[in-house]
Amino acid sequence: MPTNETVDLKTAEAFSDSWVNCFSASPYTLVQVREWFDPVGLEGLAGKSVCELGCGNGGLLQYVARFSSNVTGVELGRCVEVAKENFQRMQIGHVQFLREDILPFADHHPDEYDFVYCIGVLHHMKEPAEGFGAVVRSTRPGGRFHCWVYGYEGNFLIRTLLEPLRRIASRLPWRLNKYALALPLAVPFFLASQLVKRLRRDPFERLVPLYGYLKWIGRYRFAFHHHVAFDQLVSPQTTYIRRETIAAWLDRSDLENTYILPRNGNSWKFGGTKKR
Question: Measured by CB atoms within 10 angstroms of the end CB, which terminus of the chain is less buried, N or C?
Fold first, then answer.
């Protein structure tokens, strides 16, 4: 029976294949990053110590580093080396990168950061609840945390059609996965998003599966669609998380001002404050 650590390392290395071969040093825009972080305002990070758990190639940190001068990125996969190279090239010198598993990292750095965030990581861990625990442990009393995960709700089509393919695709060499599977899938994915982008919200919002998500991603270029398709297929481990599960995570005596917000109809943003 593989351990959680073994499964999470395998997942981190699989995503390194995605990040090391990404079409851009950051596939995101500032608008996207603000959407992910809402209701946390990036301007409020000035003067705060910030930590990203699961930073990939630093695509989000590039934007966060504009607003905070004390930033740490933690990543288990080898793509952390690419993140370091990207930041050296962009002459961003106030970001520290550490190659560590976020679970022991949180044990070694308890109550340390004013703001801890974890975007798109927990749902790929063998035990997402333990990952959330690491987020809270790393947050100092009085500090804030913020996470984003795939939702169980709103993803029936993905869970039914894409998940069986992911279980096969994630075992393939990354080039075969990215170009023989993800690339052809990205074409109808892109065409669907371009069609939905042009539809009026009513009545199609209730009729078209993944309407909100397709409406959102339809604003972005084909390369981003391909990147997302590959991200979906490369992971050896994915859990679609129910709102009630997140609510149970947040139901802790050491947390306050918690929130759970839907994003694009198929994912959840959530966070809060760690009590002093």
Answer: N
81 and 145 part of one domain: yes
Note whether 146 and 106 are same-domain residues: yes
User: Is 259 found in the same domain as 124?
Assistant: yes
- 253: containing domain: 4-152+239-274
Mean pLDDT, range 149-167, rounded to an integer = 96
Residues 167 and 134 in one domain: no
Residues 137 and 207 in one domain: no
Percent of the chain clearing pLDDT 70 (strictly above): 98
pLDDT score for 60? 94
Edge to edge, what strands does the sheet with 49-53 contain? Answer: 95-98, 70-74, 49-53, 113-119, 139-150, 267-274, 255-263
- pTM comes to 0.93
